[in-house]
From TrEMBL:
Domain Tetrahydrofolate dehydrogenase/cyclohydrolase catalytic: 79-194
Catalytic activity: (6R)-5,10-methenyltetrahydrofolate + H2O = (6R)-10-formyltetrahydrofolate + H(+); (6R)-5,10-methylene-5,6,7,8-tetrahydrofolate + NADP(+) = (6R)-5,10-methenyltetrahydrofolate + NADPH
GO cellular component, one term: cytosol
InterPro entries recorded: Aminoacid_DH-like_N_sf (IPR046346), NAD(P)-bd_dom_sf (IPR036291), THF_DH/CycHdrlase (IPR000672), THF_DH/CycHdrlase_cat_dom (IPR020630), THF_DH/CycHdrlase_CS (IPR020867), THF_DH/CycHdrlase_NAD-bd_dom (IPR020631)
Protein name: Methenyltetrahydrofolate cyclohydrolase
């Protein structure tokens, strides 16, 4: 696993020395977000975003490249995902309490954890604690590394049939011998709070379709942009990484929000040149400090999903997390950035609670 990561770093670094041309083309277009200010989330439902592709003169208007220079000062606002997530979780808790008072039911989340990965154990523990704090009931099935696929499928079927379970998730990654596709296909579409079922993902990809759930981390990224007052429509966005969990659905979601999206991955030639044209950069590869200050357009917005543990005896647990972005360089170039930790991570859990509440509301027809 580690040597694979090292190989990836080498592949990624190949592009570092290429020359680049920074260009910007941005359009300030109004979004629908103000209409949704009384909802838990500020981002609107996808169906309300569907617009016909009508090309007009202004669509083809060219803005000259930005002349803004880099300074040695911090220019970036830090997007505080931890406090935004806390605010969302409080609103979810109050909705759960309203639901309980009104119909005597609360949302239920079921988690399946296979194996002994320390990071997965931490994430699952945090998810269950967050459920507790919001008044959401949670159940967990823990299975050993060497369990069979049938055991996982059996746990899934029982949660699929349990009416008090409204959300089901299988913590990823699964141990190598599992067929992840086969397992995720079995999660009931109506309880797929991770949004990883191929039908939910397919509906996210298709115009005019509404997935029942949007994957938590991508949804968290969009919510951070909305709550920070950052326009998506008409912007150039670059998503670095194309994983099924983050990169791919984030690129689809940004597209649904009318950004012009490029995807940069390990085989992309000149990733720096492509990235430095972006108004919005979302990076999710887990390669520490991949994105240098020189990759970023002055004034861009950076959402750093990467988390990579590095040894640090001065930290409480002996390690600290660093992101995909070279933070010290980026804060001197960009207009806003998420920190690691405390940026996107806490939003992933807040969105999971949101999806679980949403699922329970749908199941009980509770508005
Ligand atoms: N079934 C799923 N598996 C995985 C998902 C997912 O959404 N569904 N995403 C990631 C892991 N993940 C949730 O499962 C997750 C990652 C990070 C955080 C988080 O809060 N990070 C904190 C730091 C926490 C720490 O100190 O370790 C932060 O960035 O501030 C929450 C959830 C892969 N698997």
């Amino acid at each position: 696993m580690k040597s694979m990561m090292q190989r990836m770093v080498v592949v990624w670094q190949k592009g570092l020395n290429n020359n680049m041309t920074c260009r910007s083309q941005s359009r300030a277009l109004n979004t629908l977000k103000d209409n949704y200010s009384c909802q838990i989330l500020k981002s609107p439902p996808l169906a309300s975003l569907d617009l016909p592709d009508v090309w007009t003169h202004s669509s083809t208007h060219y803005d000259p490249p930005s002349t803004q220079n880099c300074t040695n000062e911090q220019t970036a606002a830090v997007i505080d995902g931890k406090s935004i997530a806390e605010e969302i979780r409080l609103r979810i808790a109050s909705e759960v309490s309203r639901m309980k008072k009104s119909i005597g039911q609360v949302p239920g989340l079921a988690v399946i954890l296979v194996g002994q990965r320390k990071d997965s154990q931490t994430y699952v523990r945090n998810k269950i604690k967050a459920c507790e704090e919001a008044g959401i009931k949670s159940v967990m099935t823990e299975l050993p590394d060497d369990c069979t696929e049938d055991e996982v499928l059996c746990a899934l079927s029982s949660f699929n049939e349990n009416p008090s379970v409204h959300g089901i998730l299988v913590q990823l990654p699964l141990p190598q011998h599992f067929n992840e596709e086969k397992i995720l296909n079995v999660v009931s579409l109506e309880k797929d709070v991770d949004g990883f079922h191929p039908l939910n993902m397919g509906n996210l990809a298709m115009r005019g379709r509404e997935p029942l759930f949007i994957p938590c981390t991508p949804k968290g990224c969009i919510e951070l942009l909305f709550r920070s007052g950052i326009e998506i429509m008409g912007k150039k966005a670059v998503v670095i990484g194309r994983s099924n969990i983050v990169g791919l659905p984030t690129s689809l979601l940004l597209q649904r929000h009318h950004a012009t999206v490029s995807i940069v991955h390990a085989f992309t030639k000149n990733p720096e040149q492509i990235t430095c044209e972006a108004d919005i950069v979302v990076t999710a590869v887990g390669v520490p400090n991949l994105v240098r200050g020189s990759w970023l357009k002055p004034g861009a917005v950076v959402i750093d999903v990467g988390t990579y543990p590095v040894e640090d005896p001065s930290c409480e647990h002996g390690y600290r997390l660093i992101g995909d972005v070279c933070y010290e360089e980026a804060i001197r170039v960009v207009s806003a950035i998420t920190p690691v930790p405390g940026g996107v991570g806490p939003m992933t859990i807040a969105m999971l609670l949101f999806n679980t509440l949403h699922s329970a509301k749908r199941a009980y027809d509770f508005t």
